[in-house]
Amino acid sequence: MEVSVTHSMKASVRIPRGVENLFGTRDENIRLIETGLSVHTLLVDNNIEIEGEPENVSRAENILEDYNTLVREGHVFNNGDLNSYLRVVTTDSEVSLRALVQSGKQRNFGKKMLAPKSVNQRRYLEAIERNDLVFGIGPAGTGKTYLAVAMGISALINKSVARIILTRPAVEAGERLGFLPGTLQEKVDPYLRPLYDALYDMLDSERVEKLLERNVIEVAPIAFMRGRTLNDSFIILDEAQNSTSEQMKMVLTRQGFNSKMVVNGDITQIDLPNGRRSGLIDAMEVLKGVEGISFVPFDERDVVRHTLVQRIVKAYERYNETIGAGRQLSLKLAEPAVEAAPAAEAPPGETAPRA
Q1: Which pTM was predicted?
Q2: Residues whose CB falls within 8 Å of the CB of residue 31, separated by 6 or more in sequence, listed in order
Q3: 162-176 pLDDT, tens per residue?
């Protein structure tokens, strides 16, 4: 690798191997470096010439040198991984391409490698590693559930926990589900399907079945948490915006020794009936500043689904801003400022979350 720098805010980095991979489909990777760092590039005989502000040129140079080192060490970038990494390193100057790839390798398990696809995803994964209670708050498609399940599986495989518990608010088998055929488990499962989907995406189906059979992985509606203390566990509460204040307090106080808990939700999609306050909004206010608890916000830039989903999320945000605050805000205004602290045990019979 040869690097030569001139004094006119230009630099040149030789790319001995993997030029096609570096540029990506329709040059999307190199365009990402250009737009993310406000530089211009030109490929001349496997040398990438970079021009721009000195600080930006230096940053681009470091990224390309890291790429050279990783390729030389035999690292293979799969299915748009490089594009995801570049999105993070061009936005967050605190992290290098090499460090990002190394952290992904450390979180390797089974056939999957866990790599953050945005700055907030990186912060979320690091928060889960550092803290025993993490709240991931933001729109659908930002990877909150998927990454939490992945970190849970990683912790289970590394034997740092003995089991994983996945839960979300679900209708109890009362009048709302009474007309559906099947057992309680069959009635409840559709609400928990996204959690199963994440599991099956990461582990062989046979292995998932065995872990579920042995209750090493437990997928259950929130009511099943009542009265338990969960030691040596990785607990994930999903769709937390649809939990009531009582349910939220009940789940948060289940956490036992050597346990981690991740609570995810989207406060713009609250499906509780009028008059019921979201337990997630309560928790965000009550637990703000409590040591050992981390809140990680996500926004439309973190949406890792189809790019159209990003635009849909943004369009809804703009629409809601124009119309005025949603029903939850009007509900908040109608409520007294201080609520009495609920008992730890939640009353049975809750509301249905979004499918």
Answers
A1: 0.69
A2: none
A3: 999 988 886 433 334
